[in-house]
Structures are given as structure tokens and as C-alpha cells.
Amino acid sequence: MIDWTDRHCRYFHRQISRNALLYTEMVVADAIIHGPRERLLSFNIDEHPVALQLGGSDPVKLAEALRIAGPYGYDEINLNVGCPSDRVQSGTFGACLMLTPEVVADCVRAMKAVSKVPVTVKCRIGVDEQEPEEALPELLARVLDAGADAVWIHARKAWLKGLSPKENREIPPLDYGIVYRMKERWPEVFIGINGGIQTLDEAAAHLEHVDGVMLGRAAYQNAGILADLDHRFFGTAAAEPDWDGLRDRMMAYAVRHIESGGRLQHVARHMVGLFTGIPGARRYRQILSSDAAKAGAGPEVIAAAFAAVDFSGAKEALSA
Hints:
Layout: H1 7-16, E1 22-28, H2 29-34, H3 37-41, E2 50-55, H4 59-69, E3 76-81, H5 86-90, H6 101-114, E4 119-127, H7 132-145, E5 150-158, H8 165-168, H9 176-185, E6 190-194, H10 200-206, E7 212-214, H11 217-221, H12 229-234, H13 243-259, H14 264-268, H15 281-290, H16 300-307, H17 314-319
Parallel strand pairs: 1-2, 2-3, 3-4, 4-5, 5-6, 6-7
Helix pairs in contact: 4-6, 6-7, 13-16, 15-16
């Protein structure tokens, strides 16, 4: 979710679900060590619980990045062994690390040695010509032996050559069954599932077999599905979504961001998919997409966008 789940996106999602674990974009260890660490690592305290997702293949650099990130107060550190993009491969991390499970284990071991919070791994079921039934359990065995506290598995292979990142999300077939079998093999380990999950009903079905469900693009492109998440999975009381309250909180947040030198578009771009399928959603999207990008745009754009939505049909559309 590079360029998607930045701190503005996470703050927005946190206003809809108080309990979901949020993940940062993948941040490369070298960038933390040598780059603008405050911009890369700082986040709003309201985002908790939030996990920092790291990219890298050098145990020493990952440990150093984690030492730097420690004081920021993340609730989890996640090592990405699943991203298939070309720029990730050129840095020898992401999904290509599936080919060297011993390197991943060394990275986890080094991170565990300095981390005060859980260290987890997000991986694919395999890459290229690997046989997932062999490659995936070998990776899990190594990283768990190294001390990994949990594993999140994207239930697709990644093809490192010949497919774009977008195609890698669609063309390799999903195999949820192999993820279930990994949970059966390691019943004492937290194993979560990711990949192609579109609804909370699908998430509930997966939770019959695994410990956690990760929603990526489904939550970004239709953030309204998060409105019932706390009630369904965290036992909070059922309640109508407070759309007015969400509007007001995001307007106040936008004001603070603009006053600090930012632009409304930085915040509003993550809100475009909120009311997918609800009457007035098209006009809502138009306002946020066009007006928020204009010079001098302020929180009144968010108010105008919300005013275009017919909330009387929101509950039925979001539960469909």
C-alpha cells in the first residue's frame, strides 16, 4: 500500500474503526537511517494501534532502523516479504526474499533482539516457480524459529518477472486453503490472511480458520465497510455510524494540516471512496476530487461533499 496508507489515511480510517490494527506504508530501512525520519515515522497518537511496516534485507540496517523507530511508539513492527514491485526487487527486499528464507530469518532475529514490541512477517505463498506447499512452510519454520510473533500471508504467488504489481494482485490465483493448512500445522502461532477479501462477511468466514484478516484495497476503496467492523469483531455495541461526527473530525484535522503548511488534497484524497454505493456518492467523489485540489481549498470542501450524500440509504448500502 505504498503511497496509500500514509498518516492522513490512517487517521481517517481510525475515525471509522477504533479497534482495527492499522499498518503504515512500507518504509525502507535505509530511508529511516539516512532520510527524513521524522516525516517517515511520525504519526498521530489517535492512530493507535498502529504497526510500522519495514522493507529491507540487511539485518544490521533493519535493527538500526528499528532502534530509531522505537521511541515513536509503534505497537508492532512488520517485515514485508510480499511486495512484488520492481523498485522493491531492485533493492533486494519484498517478495523476492521468499527465495532466501534464511535471510528473512536473520532479519527477524536481528529485529527481535532490539524490539520492545511484537515483530511480525507479511509474505506471499511463494514466488515464480516455487512450489508453495514447500516454500511457504520452509519460510514459516525459519522465521518462527527466529522469533517472529505472527505471520500474515497474502494467499497468492508473486511473479517477479512478467507481471506488474497490479497484475500480481489479480492474475495469480488465490489459494486460501494453503493458509488454512499453515494454521493447522502451527496452531499455537497467530496466522493472518490477506488477498482479495472484499467484505466483512468474507472476513468472518476466514476467521473460522485463521486468527486475523487483513483488508487492503477493499478498505481503502470503500472505507465505509469499516463502519460495522468494531461491532462485528470487537464486541462493541451496535450503533448507527456518526457521519456528522466523522465530517467534523476530518474538517478539524484538515484545518490543523493546512495550518502546518499542508494542503487539503493530502487529506481528502483518502476519503474519496467512503460512500461507495450510497446515493449521492458520485457527487461526493466529484467534490473531493476536484475542489480539494484547488489552491486555497479548506475544510468547507469536506462539508460540501458530505452534504451531497443521502444518508438515509447509507446503512442498507454498506451492509449489502
